[in-house]
Every structure is written in C-alpha cells, then in structure tokens.
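Intended use. Records like the one below are meant for learning the mapping from a protein sequence to its folded structure. Do not use them to infer anything beyond what is encoded.
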Amino acid sequence: MSYPNGKIPQSALAPITKAANGKQVYLRKDAAKAFMAMNAESEERFGITLRATGSRSAYRTYAEQVALRNDYLEGRGALAAIPGTSNHGLGLAVDFATPQMRTIVDKIGAKYGFAKKWSDAP
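Structure written out for the chain above:
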C-alpha cells in the first residue's frame, strides 16, 4: 500500500538500529528489512553498526520535514527537502551518524537498495 509522503502509519514502519543519540528510528517495513541485512554485513565485514544521526534521521513525518525545512530557510539548519518531496518522508532514507558509516554504505549499499545515485542530498 502506498502512503502520502510523511504520513506513513506506525503499522507500516519497522525499527532499525537505534540512532547515535539512542533514539529509536524507523523505515518503511521493506526498507527496514533491507537496512538490517545491510547492517548485518557491515557488522560482519567492518565491525561497524550502521546508525542514523538522530531521531529525525530516518523516517520523518510531514510536520518534522516542515520544521527542518523552516530551520534551513531561516539559516538555522542543514539543507532539507521541500515537505512532501523528501525520501525520509517515504521511509526510504537514512542520514548516517559518521562519514565512516556513509563510506561503508557507498561500498555495500546498492545491493540492499541504498545508494546515493538516486538522491540529490549531500
């Protein structure tokens, strides 16, 4: 079933590894399954658990995206997509806690559906 960007019900989400700040984060169930498989490979091959930066670094509600976009437009935050267009609102994106984690995903992520080639985010 397809849901509007940023309006995915909790029942359609699944937890992934906790964020670096200890908060639980979620992705769409199919993406969460792929993420956890990718994380298992990361832990096995590199000894690194893949973690989101914080509580808004994986799935985001529409309201959270509005707040992040407003912070960006007011010069108080990082680049944030226009609400309703974010891959985070689709439950398909993760901002990683460290550059090392990002490098690992660049190496192994494509086979799990995680790759930067389809994203305009830095």
